[in-house]
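Bit of a strange request maybe. I'm writing a small parser for C-alpha coordinate strings and I need a real example to test against, not something I typed by hand. Could someone generate the C-alpha coordinates for this chain?
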Amino acid sequence: MSTDRMKEAGKVGVMIVGHREYWPQFEGQREAEIASGEKFEAALERFGVHVIRYFADDGTQMIDSPEKAFAAGIYFKKNDIDLCFIYLPSYVASGRYVIGAKQVCCPIVLVGHQVHYELGSTPVGQTNGYGGPCCVTEAYNALERCGIKPVDFVFGRQSGSWYGSNMEKNLEEWCRVADILRAYKGAIFGHMGHSYEGMLDMHFDPTTFTRSFGIHIKMLEMCELVEYVKGATEQEIALKLEEIKEKFTILDPSYDPTTVPVKQEDLDWAAQCAVGLEKMVKNNNLSAMAYYYEGRDNYYERVASNLIIGNSLLESEGIPLAGESDMKTCMAMYTTSSMGAGGSFAEYGVDMLDDIMLVGHDGPHDIRISEGKPTIRGLGVYHGKRGHGVSVEFSLKTGPITMLGLSTDICSKFKFICAEAESQKGPVPQMGNTWTRAALNRDVSEFVVDWAKAGNTHHLALCLGHQKGVIEKLCRVLSDVQYVQVPA
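Reply from user aminoacidic:
Good idea to test on real output. This should exercise your parser:
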Protein backbone atom coordinates (compact mmCIF):
# COMPACT_ATOMS: atom_id res chain seq x y z
CA MET A 1 0.00 0.00 0.00
CA SER A 2 1.18 3.56 -0.62
CA THR A 3 1.60 4.22 3.11
CA ASP A 4 5.19 3.13 2.44
CA ARG A 5 5.82 6.43 0.68
CA MET A 6 4.69 8.37 3.76
CA LYS A 7 6.95 6.30 6.01
CA GLU A 8 10.03 6.83 3.84
CA ALA A 9 12.40 9.44 5.27
CA GLY A 10 13.60 12.30 3.13
CA LYS A 11 16.90 11.70 1.33
CA VAL A 12 19.54 14.41 1.71
CA GLY A 13 23.01 14.73 0.26
CA VAL A 14 25.87 16.61 1.93
CA MET A 15 28.74 18.19 0.00
CA ILE A 16 31.61 18.65 2.47
CA VAL A 17 33.73 21.18 0.61
CA GLY A 18 37.21 22.51 1.32
CA HIS A 19 40.00 24.78 0.02
CA ARG A 20 42.81 22.46 -1.01
CA GLU A 21 45.50 25.17 -0.82
CA TYR A 22 45.19 24.99 2.97
CA TRP A 23 46.13 21.31 3.24
CA PRO A 24 49.93 21.68 2.86
CA GLN A 25 49.91 24.93 4.86
CA PHE A 26 48.01 23.80 7.95
CA GLU A 27 48.63 20.27 9.12
CA GLY A 28 45.49 18.41 10.12
CA GLN A 29 43.02 20.97 8.77
CA ARG A 30 41.73 18.69 6.00
CA GLU A 31 41.10 15.88 8.50
CA ALA A 32 39.45 18.30 10.92
CA GLU A 33 37.09 19.60 8.24
CA ILE A 34 36.14 16.07 7.18
CA ALA A 35 35.40 15.25 10.83
CA SER A 36 33.35 18.43 11.15
CA GLY A 37 31.29 17.42 8.11
CA GLU A 38 30.71 13.96 9.56
CA LYS A 39 29.43 15.57 12.78
CA PHE A 40 27.05 17.64 10.66
CA GLU A 41 25.77 14.51 8.91
CA ALA A 42 25.24 12.85 12.30
CA ALA A 43 23.16 15.85 13.36
CA LEU A 44 20.95 15.47 10.28
CA GLU A 45 20.49 11.78 11.06
CA ARG A 46 19.34 12.71 14.56
CA PHE A 47 16.60 14.67 12.82
CA GLY A 48 15.42 11.53 11.07
CA VAL A 49 16.46 11.93 7.43
CA HIS A 50 18.37 9.44 5.28
CA VAL A 51 21.82 10.92 4.60
CA ILE A 52 23.35 9.92 1.25
CA ARG A 53 27.16 10.07 1.42
CA TYR A 54 29.55 10.54 -1.48
CA PHE A 55 33.08 9.17 -1.12
CA ALA A 56 35.90 10.25 -3.43
CA ASP A 57 38.67 7.95 -4.68
CA ASP A 58 40.73 8.62 -1.54
CA GLY A 59 37.96 7.15 0.62
CA THR A 60 36.96 10.47 2.21
CA GLN A 61 33.96 12.76 1.68
CA MET A 62 36.12 15.83 1.07
CA ILE A 63 35.21 17.73 -2.11
CA ASP A 64 38.06 20.12 -2.94
CA SER A 65 38.11 20.12 -6.75
CA PRO A 66 35.64 20.67 -9.61
CA GLU A 67 36.13 17.06 -10.70
CA LYS A 68 35.12 15.68 -7.32
CA ALA A 69 32.21 18.10 -7.11
CA PHE A 70 30.91 17.06 -10.52
CA ALA A 71 31.15 13.36 -9.60
CA ALA A 72 29.35 14.02 -6.30
CA GLY A 73 26.58 15.94 -8.04
CA ILE A 74 25.97 13.09 -10.48
CA TYR A 75 26.02 10.58 -7.61
CA PHE A 76 23.45 12.54 -5.64
CA LYS A 77 21.26 12.94 -8.71
CA LYS A 78 21.35 9.16 -9.35
CA ASN A 79 20.34 8.58 -5.75
CA ASP A 80 17.34 10.91 -6.15
CA ILE A 81 18.03 13.10 -3.12
CA ASP A 82 15.32 15.55 -2.05
CA LEU A 83 17.62 18.23 -0.64
CA CYS A 84 21.33 19.01 -0.88
CA PHE A 85 23.30 20.66 1.92
CA ILE A 86 26.56 22.34 0.93
CA TYR A 87 28.57 22.29 4.15
CA LEU A 88 31.31 24.93 4.40
CA PRO A 89 33.43 24.32 7.51
CA SER A 90 36.02 26.92 6.41
CA TYR A 91 36.78 29.20 3.50
CA VAL A 92 36.65 27.51 0.08
CA ALA A 93 36.71 29.05 -3.37
CA SER A 94 33.24 28.61 -4.86
CA GLY A 95 34.54 27.36 -8.21
CA ARG A 96 35.56 24.13 -6.50
CA TYR A 97 31.95 22.96 -6.01
CA VAL A 98 29.45 25.00 -8.06
CA ILE A 99 29.84 22.65 -11.03
CA GLY A 100 28.61 19.85 -8.75
CA ALA A 101 25.73 21.93 -7.44
CA LYS A 102 24.57 22.33 -11.04
CA GLN A 103 24.10 18.56 -11.31
CA VAL A 104 22.04 17.65 -8.24
CA CYS A 105 18.70 18.92 -9.61
CA CYS A 106 17.17 19.56 -6.18
CA PRO A 107 16.94 22.47 -3.70
CA ILE A 108 20.24 23.55 -2.12
CA VAL A 109 20.77 24.78 1.44
CA LEU A 110 24.08 26.45 2.32
CA VAL A 111 25.38 25.73 5.82
CA GLY A 112 28.16 27.56 7.61
CA HIS A 113 29.16 27.92 11.23
CA GLN A 114 31.54 29.64 13.60
CA VAL A 115 33.31 27.63 16.27
CA HIS A 116 33.90 29.66 19.44
CA TYR A 117 37.55 30.31 20.25
CA GLU A 118 39.62 32.70 22.37
CA LEU A 119 40.56 35.74 20.31
CA GLY A 120 44.26 36.63 20.37
CA SER A 121 45.45 33.33 21.83
CA THR A 122 44.43 30.71 19.25
CA PRO A 123 46.93 30.00 16.44
CA VAL A 124 45.86 30.90 12.92
CA GLY A 125 46.27 27.29 11.89
CA GLN A 126 43.36 26.46 14.16
CA THR A 127 41.17 29.51 13.64
CA ASN A 128 41.36 29.05 9.89
CA GLY A 129 39.39 25.82 10.24
CA TYR A 130 36.83 27.22 12.65
CA GLY A 131 34.47 28.47 9.95
CA GLY A 132 33.10 31.97 9.44
CA PRO A 133 30.68 33.84 7.17
CA CYS A 134 33.00 34.74 4.29
CA CYS A 135 32.76 31.42 2.45
CA VAL A 136 28.98 31.28 2.70
CA THR A 137 28.41 34.75 1.30
CA GLU A 138 30.69 33.89 -1.64
CA ALA A 139 28.79 30.63 -2.12
CA TYR A 140 25.42 32.38 -2.19
CA ASN A 141 26.65 34.94 -4.71
CA ALA A 142 28.34 32.39 -6.98
CA LEU A 143 25.39 30.00 -7.04
CA GLU A 144 22.93 32.79 -7.76
CA ARG A 145 25.09 34.06 -10.63
CA CYS A 146 25.08 30.51 -12.03
CA GLY A 147 21.31 30.34 -12.01
CA ILE A 148 20.96 28.40 -8.75
CA LYS A 149 19.25 30.34 -5.99
CA PRO A 150 19.87 28.59 -2.65
CA VAL A 151 16.63 28.11 -0.74
CA ASP A 152 18.39 29.02 2.51
CA PHE A 153 21.64 30.05 4.14
CA VAL A 154 21.88 28.52 7.61
CA PHE A 155 24.58 29.95 9.84
CA GLY A 156 25.23 29.66 13.55
CA ARG A 157 27.47 28.65 16.39
CA GLN A 158 29.02 25.20 16.80
CA SER A 159 30.19 23.68 20.06
CA GLY A 160 31.40 20.08 19.85
CA SER A 161 28.85 17.97 17.98
CA TRP A 162 26.02 20.41 18.64
CA TYR A 163 24.98 23.64 17.00
CA GLY A 164 23.25 26.71 18.37
CA SER A 165 19.55 26.22 19.14
CA ASN A 166 18.33 28.44 16.31
CA MET A 167 20.65 26.72 13.84
CA GLU A 168 19.45 23.29 14.99
CA LYS A 169 15.83 24.41 14.67
CA ASN A 170 16.41 25.54 11.09
CA LEU A 171 18.22 22.34 10.16
CA GLU A 172 15.49 20.16 11.67
CA GLU A 173 12.83 22.12 9.77
CA TRP A 174 14.74 21.56 6.52
CA CYS A 175 14.82 17.84 7.31
CA ARG A 176 11.04 17.90 7.65
CA VAL A 177 10.84 19.64 4.26
CA ALA A 178 12.91 16.79 2.82
CA ASP A 179 10.39 14.33 4.27
CA ILE A 180 7.53 16.21 2.59
CA LEU A 181 9.29 16.38 -0.76
CA ARG A 182 9.95 12.62 -0.58
CA ALA A 183 6.25 12.00 0.15
CA TYR A 184 5.17 14.17 -2.81
CA LYS A 185 7.24 12.17 -5.31
CA GLY A 186 5.07 9.73 -7.24
CA ALA A 187 2.03 10.37 -5.04
CA ILE A 188 -1.38 9.46 -6.48
CA PHE A 189 -4.41 11.28 -5.07
CA GLY A 190 -7.82 9.83 -5.77
CA HIS A 191 -10.90 11.91 -6.52
CA MET A 192 -14.29 10.24 -6.24
CA GLY A 193 -17.67 11.85 -6.77
CA HIS A 194 -18.02 15.61 -7.05
CA SER A 195 -17.86 18.81 -5.05
CA TYR A 196 -20.60 19.52 -2.53
CA GLU A 197 -23.17 21.48 -4.52
CA GLY A 198 -22.69 25.23 -4.16
CA MET A 199 -19.36 25.16 -2.28
CA LEU A 200 -17.43 27.27 -4.75
CA ASP A 201 -14.31 27.30 -2.57
CA MET A 202 -14.05 23.50 -2.98
CA HIS A 203 -13.66 23.52 -6.77
CA PHE A 204 -10.20 22.63 -8.09
CA ASP A 205 -8.21 22.03 -11.26
CA PRO A 206 -6.34 18.67 -11.12
CA THR A 207 -3.62 19.88 -13.49
CA THR A 208 -2.56 22.63 -11.10
CA PHE A 209 -1.76 20.01 -8.44
CA THR A 210 0.60 18.25 -10.83
CA ARG A 211 2.14 21.60 -11.76
CA SER A 212 2.78 22.80 -8.21
CA PHE A 213 3.23 19.62 -6.14
CA GLY A 214 4.18 16.97 -8.70
CA ILE A 215 1.33 14.64 -7.71
CA HIS A 216 -1.17 12.93 -10.03
CA ILE A 217 -4.91 13.04 -9.41
CA LYS A 218 -6.74 9.88 -10.47
CA MET A 219 -10.49 9.97 -11.15
CA LEU A 220 -12.33 7.15 -9.39
CA GLU A 221 -15.83 5.74 -9.74
CA MET A 222 -18.33 4.91 -7.01
CA CYS A 223 -19.19 1.65 -8.75
CA GLU A 224 -15.64 0.37 -8.10
CA LEU A 225 -15.94 1.16 -4.40
CA VAL A 226 -19.39 -0.42 -4.21
CA GLU A 227 -18.02 -3.58 -5.82
CA TYR A 228 -15.38 -3.85 -3.10
CA VAL A 229 -17.92 -3.18 -0.34
CA LYS A 230 -20.30 -5.83 -1.67
CA GLY A 231 -17.41 -8.29 -1.98
CA ALA A 232 -16.21 -7.91 1.63
CA THR A 233 -16.13 -11.31 3.31
CA GLU A 234 -17.48 -12.11 6.77
CA GLN A 235 -13.94 -12.74 7.99
CA GLU A 236 -12.71 -9.36 6.64
CA ILE A 237 -15.63 -7.57 8.29
CA ALA A 238 -15.06 -9.39 11.60
CA LEU A 239 -11.37 -8.41 11.63
CA LYS A 240 -12.25 -4.80 10.86
CA LEU A 241 -14.81 -4.78 13.69
CA GLU A 242 -12.10 -5.98 16.08
CA GLU A 243 -9.86 -3.12 14.93
CA ILE A 244 -12.66 -0.58 15.38
CA LYS A 245 -13.48 -1.80 18.90
CA GLU A 246 -9.78 -1.76 19.80
CA LYS A 247 -9.17 1.80 18.60
CA PHE A 248 -12.45 3.55 19.52
CA THR A 249 -14.73 3.95 22.52
CA ILE A 250 -18.43 3.78 21.68
CA LEU A 251 -20.49 6.63 23.20
CA ASP A 252 -24.10 6.98 24.25
CA PRO A 253 -26.20 9.74 22.65
CA SER A 254 -25.42 13.29 23.84
CA TYR A 255 -27.65 16.24 24.60
CA ASP A 256 -27.63 17.04 20.87
CA PRO A 257 -30.86 15.78 19.23
CA THR A 258 -29.02 14.67 16.07
CA THR A 259 -27.05 12.01 17.97
CA VAL A 260 -28.54 8.55 18.37
CA PRO A 261 -27.49 5.21 19.91
CA VAL A 262 -24.83 3.26 18.04
CA LYS A 263 -26.43 0.04 16.87
CA GLN A 264 -24.49 -3.12 16.08
CA GLU A 265 -25.81 -3.02 12.53
CA ASP A 266 -24.33 0.47 12.14
CA LEU A 267 -20.91 -0.78 13.27
CA ASP A 268 -21.16 -3.82 11.00
CA TRP A 269 -21.95 -1.62 8.02
CA ALA A 270 -19.16 0.86 8.86
CA ALA A 271 -16.72 -2.07 9.05
CA GLN A 272 -17.90 -3.45 5.71
CA CYS A 273 -17.48 -0.04 4.07
CA ALA A 274 -14.03 0.29 5.67
CA VAL A 275 -12.98 -3.02 4.14
CA GLY A 276 -14.13 -1.85 0.70
CA LEU A 277 -12.43 1.52 1.08
CA GLU A 278 -9.13 -0.10 2.05
CA LYS A 279 -9.26 -2.24 -1.11
CA MET A 280 -10.06 0.86 -3.17
CA VAL A 281 -6.98 2.62 -1.82
CA LYS A 282 -4.72 -0.41 -2.24
CA ASN A 283 -5.83 -1.36 -5.75
CA ASN A 284 -5.43 2.20 -7.02
CA ASN A 285 -2.11 2.81 -5.21
CA LEU A 286 -3.52 5.91 -3.55
CA SER A 287 -1.55 8.20 -1.26
CA ALA A 288 -4.66 10.25 -0.41
CA MET A 289 -8.24 10.78 -1.56
CA ALA A 290 -10.91 13.48 -1.66
CA TYR A 291 -14.50 12.47 -2.18
CA TYR A 292 -18.14 13.45 -1.95
CA TYR A 293 -21.19 11.70 -3.34
CA GLU A 294 -24.94 12.15 -2.94
CA GLY A 295 -27.25 9.32 -3.86
CA ARG A 296 -31.00 9.17 -3.60
CA ASP A 297 -31.87 6.63 -0.92
CA ASN A 298 -29.92 3.89 -2.68
CA TYR A 299 -26.95 1.60 -2.06
CA TYR A 300 -24.45 4.19 -3.31
CA GLU A 301 -25.71 6.71 -0.78
CA ARG A 302 -25.44 4.15 2.03
CA VAL A 303 -21.80 3.48 1.11
CA ALA A 304 -20.77 7.12 0.56
CA SER A 305 -22.29 8.25 3.85
CA ASN A 306 -20.59 5.53 5.92
CA LEU A 307 -16.91 5.95 5.07
CA ILE A 308 -15.98 7.95 8.16
CA ILE A 309 -14.62 5.05 10.23
CA GLY A 310 -12.68 3.61 7.29
CA ASN A 311 -11.38 7.08 6.47
CA SER A 312 -10.09 7.62 9.98
CA LEU A 313 -8.37 4.22 10.11
CA LEU A 314 -6.62 4.88 6.78
CA GLU A 315 -5.78 8.47 7.68
CA SER A 316 -4.11 7.22 10.83
CA GLU A 317 -1.86 5.07 8.64
CA GLY A 318 -0.72 8.14 6.70
CA ILE A 319 -3.32 8.16 3.89
CA PRO A 320 -5.40 11.35 4.31
CA LEU A 321 -8.99 11.40 3.12
CA ALA A 322 -10.97 14.61 2.82
CA GLY A 323 -14.74 14.91 2.62
CA GLU A 324 -16.85 17.35 0.59
CA SER A 325 -14.41 16.75 -2.29
CA ASP A 326 -11.90 19.17 -0.75
CA MET A 327 -8.73 18.27 -2.65
CA LYS A 328 -6.92 21.39 -1.41
CA THR A 329 -7.36 20.47 2.25
CA CYS A 330 -6.48 16.86 1.37
CA MET A 331 -3.16 18.21 0.06
CA ALA A 332 -2.64 20.21 3.27
CA MET A 333 -3.39 17.12 5.38
CA TYR A 334 -0.95 15.05 3.34
CA THR A 335 1.70 17.72 3.84
CA THR A 336 1.37 17.92 7.63
CA SER A 337 1.13 14.14 7.93
CA SER A 338 4.27 13.60 5.87
CA MET A 339 6.26 15.86 8.22
CA GLY A 340 5.20 13.63 11.12
CA ALA A 341 2.67 16.01 12.69
CA GLY A 342 -0.54 14.18 11.72
CA GLY A 343 -3.36 15.84 9.85
CA SER A 344 -7.08 16.08 10.60
CA PHE A 345 -9.88 17.46 8.42
CA ALA A 346 -11.41 20.52 10.06
CA GLU A 347 -13.38 23.72 9.79
CA TYR A 348 -13.88 26.33 12.47
CA GLY A 349 -16.24 27.94 14.94
CA VAL A 350 -15.69 30.14 17.98
CA ASP A 351 -16.37 30.21 21.70
CA MET A 352 -16.87 33.95 22.10
CA LEU A 353 -17.22 33.69 25.89
CA ASP A 354 -13.70 32.27 26.33
CA ASP A 355 -12.21 33.92 23.21
CA ILE A 356 -11.33 30.48 21.81
CA MET A 357 -11.37 29.02 18.30
CA LEU A 358 -13.28 25.74 18.01
CA VAL A 359 -11.69 23.68 15.25
CA GLY A 360 -13.21 20.42 14.01
CA HIS A 361 -15.58 18.62 11.62
CA ASP A 362 -17.66 15.53 11.11
CA GLY A 363 -15.87 13.10 8.81
CA PRO A 364 -12.32 11.74 8.46
CA HIS A 365 -9.82 12.33 11.23
CA ASP A 366 -6.31 11.34 12.25
CA ILE A 367 -6.73 9.36 15.46
CA ARG A 368 -2.94 9.34 16.03
CA ILE A 369 -3.19 12.91 17.31
CA SER A 370 -6.18 12.40 19.61
CA GLU A 371 -6.09 13.37 23.28
CA GLY A 372 -6.93 9.97 24.73
CA LYS A 373 -8.82 7.20 22.99
CA PRO A 374 -11.03 8.52 20.15
CA THR A 375 -14.74 7.88 20.34
CA ILE A 376 -17.64 6.94 18.06
CA ARG A 377 -21.07 8.54 18.24
CA GLY A 378 -24.20 7.73 16.25
CA LEU A 379 -25.64 10.46 14.02
CA GLY A 380 -29.24 10.45 12.87
CA VAL A 381 -28.38 13.09 10.27
CA TYR A 382 -25.03 14.19 8.81
CA HIS A 383 -25.21 17.97 9.36
CA GLY A 384 -26.24 19.15 5.90
CA LYS A 385 -25.48 15.92 4.03
CA ARG A 386 -27.57 12.93 3.06
CA GLY A 387 -27.38 9.72 5.04
CA HIS A 388 -26.78 8.66 8.64
CA GLY A 389 -24.42 6.42 10.56
CA VAL A 390 -21.48 6.68 12.97
CA SER A 391 -18.95 9.48 13.29
CA VAL A 392 -15.62 9.99 15.04
CA GLU A 393 -15.30 12.41 17.95
CA PHE A 394 -12.17 13.61 19.78
CA SER A 395 -9.97 16.62 20.58
CA LEU A 396 -6.33 17.07 19.62
CA LYS A 397 -3.61 16.44 22.18
CA THR A 398 -3.04 19.45 24.38
CA GLY A 399 -0.12 21.67 23.50
CA PRO A 400 1.06 23.52 20.39
CA ILE A 401 -0.94 22.97 17.20
CA THR A 402 -0.96 24.40 13.68
CA MET A 403 -3.90 25.28 11.44
CA LEU A 404 -2.92 24.95 7.78
CA GLY A 405 -5.13 25.96 4.89
CA LEU A 406 -4.41 25.58 1.17
CA SER A 407 -6.19 27.88 -1.22
CA THR A 408 -5.84 29.43 -4.67
CA ASP A 409 -5.98 32.99 -5.89
CA ILE A 410 -7.84 34.33 -8.92
CA CYS A 411 -5.01 33.10 -11.18
CA SER A 412 -5.17 29.54 -9.73
CA LYS A 413 -1.86 29.97 -7.88
CA PHE A 414 -1.69 28.05 -4.62
CA LYS A 415 -0.96 29.50 -1.19
CA PHE A 416 -0.45 27.77 2.12
CA ILE A 417 -2.09 29.78 4.91
CA CYS A 418 -0.75 29.07 8.38
CA ALA A 419 -1.59 29.98 11.97
CA GLU A 420 -0.23 28.55 15.22
CA ALA A 421 -2.25 28.08 18.41
CA GLU A 422 -2.43 25.99 21.59
CA SER A 423 -4.80 23.07 22.12
CA GLN A 424 -6.42 23.36 25.53
CA LYS A 425 -8.73 21.14 27.53
CA GLY A 426 -12.24 22.41 28.08
CA PRO A 427 -15.88 21.99 27.09
CA VAL A 428 -16.71 21.24 23.44
CA PRO A 429 -20.00 20.46 21.65
CA GLN A 430 -20.94 16.77 21.88
CA MET A 431 -22.43 16.31 18.44
CA GLY A 432 -20.41 13.62 16.71
CA ASN A 433 -17.73 16.01 15.46
CA THR A 434 -14.13 16.39 16.45
CA TRP A 435 -13.63 19.67 18.30
CA THR A 436 -10.40 21.21 19.55
CA ARG A 437 -10.22 24.33 21.67
CA ALA A 438 -7.52 26.41 19.95
CA ALA A 439 -6.29 29.21 22.21
CA LEU A 440 -4.90 32.33 20.51
CA ASN A 441 -2.88 35.27 21.78
CA ARG A 442 -5.30 37.80 20.31
CA ASP A 443 -8.98 38.64 19.99
CA VAL A 444 -10.70 35.72 18.29
CA SER A 445 -13.00 37.98 16.24
CA GLU A 446 -10.04 39.84 14.74
CA PHE A 447 -8.32 36.53 13.98
CA VAL A 448 -11.37 35.22 12.11
CA VAL A 449 -11.37 38.35 9.94
CA ASP A 450 -7.65 38.05 9.14
CA TRP A 451 -7.97 34.29 8.47
CA ALA A 452 -10.78 34.92 5.99
CA LYS A 453 -8.98 37.84 4.31
CA ALA A 454 -5.97 35.60 3.75
CA GLY A 455 -8.12 33.78 1.20
CA ASN A 456 -8.77 30.50 3.00
CA THR A 457 -11.41 27.99 2.11
CA HIS A 458 -13.74 27.05 4.96
CA HIS A 459 -11.67 23.91 5.68
CA LEU A 460 -8.13 23.37 6.95
CA ALA A 461 -5.70 20.70 8.13
CA LEU A 462 -5.11 20.54 11.85
CA CYS A 463 -1.84 19.09 13.14
CA LEU A 464 0.41 18.91 16.19
CA GLY A 465 3.29 21.29 16.91
CA HIS A 466 4.15 24.78 15.72
CA GLN A 467 5.00 24.15 12.09
CA LYS A 468 5.13 27.57 10.42
CA GLY A 469 8.91 27.32 9.98
CA VAL A 470 8.57 24.07 8.03
CA ILE A 471 5.72 25.36 5.85
CA GLU A 472 7.49 28.64 5.09
CA LYS A 473 10.63 26.74 4.04
CA LEU A 474 8.56 24.32 1.95
CA CYS A 475 7.07 27.24 0.03
CA ARG A 476 10.58 28.47 -0.84
CA VAL A 477 11.11 25.12 -2.57
CA LEU A 478 7.67 25.02 -4.21
CA SER A 479 8.44 28.05 -6.32
CA ASP A 480 4.86 28.88 -7.31
CA VAL A 481 3.23 28.27 -3.89
CA GLN A 482 2.90 31.38 -1.74
CA TYR A 483 3.26 31.36 2.06
CA VAL A 484 0.84 33.43 4.15
CA GLN A 485 1.17 33.72 7.94
CA VAL A 486 -1.89 34.78 9.94
CA PRO A 487 -0.86 36.13 13.38
CA ALA A 488 -2.48 34.16 16.16
